[in-house]
Prior knowledge:
Strand 10 (about 265-270), helix 14 (about 275-285) and strand 11 (about 290-295) form a beta-alpha-beta unit. The chain is built from 15 helices and twelve strands. By secondary structure, the chain is α/β, with parallel strands linked by helices. The protein folds into two domains: about 10-35 and about 115-340, no CATH class; about 40-110, no CATH class. A six-stranded parallel sheet has the order 5-2-1-10-11-12, with helices on both faces. Strands 3-4-8-7 form a four-stranded antiparallel sheet. This is DUF4917 domain-containing protein. It comes from Novipirellula aureliae. InterPro entries: DUF4917.
Amino acid sequence: xxxxxxxxxxxxxxxxxxxxxxxxxxxxxxxxxxxxAYGSLFEHAKANGLPDSCLSxxxxxxxxxxEGVMRLLEDADWVAQHYGLIDGATPSAMLxxxxxxxxxxxxxxxxxxxxxxxDISGKKKDTCVQFLGPYHNxxxxxxxxxxxxxxxxxxxxxxxxxxxxxxxxxxxxxxxxFSEHVGGDKGIFFIHGALHLYSVGGQVxxxxxxxxxxxxxxxxxxxxxxxxxxxxxAEGTAEKKLIQIQNSGYLSYCLGxxxxxxxxxxxxxxxxxxxxQHIANVLAQNRKLKRAYIGLFGDPESPSNLDTRKxxxxxxxxxxxxxxxxxxxxxxxxxxxxVSTAVVWDAPDGSGKSLTF
Length: 357
């Protein structure tokens, strides 16, 4: 079935002055810097010691998708235990490789990431601030610092809060801690964690360049060198991602906030794939969400877009079931738009258009 896509300007017109929210996936970051594409991250991991046993799994799948490989390793461990091939008492080779792939992904993002906020041009950041401006709450599934840098660059215009403040038990600490909900204020939420966040004894902390005088990436890389990893939801399946989210007060708050937003949601750069089903589920369960605008890049009939549409259709079926059971109050309307018509970052040709996602 052919699908007519809205332009992004049409989306903004339909949103009007009403409160709307934004959900960003990896396409948001890749549109700014190609280093965030899985292919670039895989090449870095490959060149920096990713074990041969892990590389063989990537080769077997014919992919550079870290989540797909993690999902396969996790499933392989389950199958091996189910058929008695391993006893499960000690970590299997599959789980050892799964952990290696997770760490390789974190390291690749941290080591290939632009070093400083000024590595992203002021014009790019200004354009992105304008793009983010209409939205009340901004949710992000990415691990990088781009959204954080843009928010800091345009804080006077965006005014988003993230719930982090000084530690009342250690006011002079070189970090800030997650200590308060943002309530009805504008907010920014990292649903899957991010490079600048980490956990110590259950307390979620944020690296602070203001308090240390160090660039964020410098502090993050120093922490990695001593084995302190960022707060990352790097799991292969939606089920495992949800478990990790539920085990963190900060992450569960972020996902819960997505389940409580009202009116309309716009998504950009999110595929709604198998590993995103925990997000699709909270949107289906949201009692006050009326409409979602789903961004597609390229031909709506391409395999990747058809896959996205299939998963969105499954989300609507879940919504229908909840509606029949009177657990939600209204249907969820879905509209698709062409993300290439959204001005997110300045393009290399200076046109002000995002050329690729």
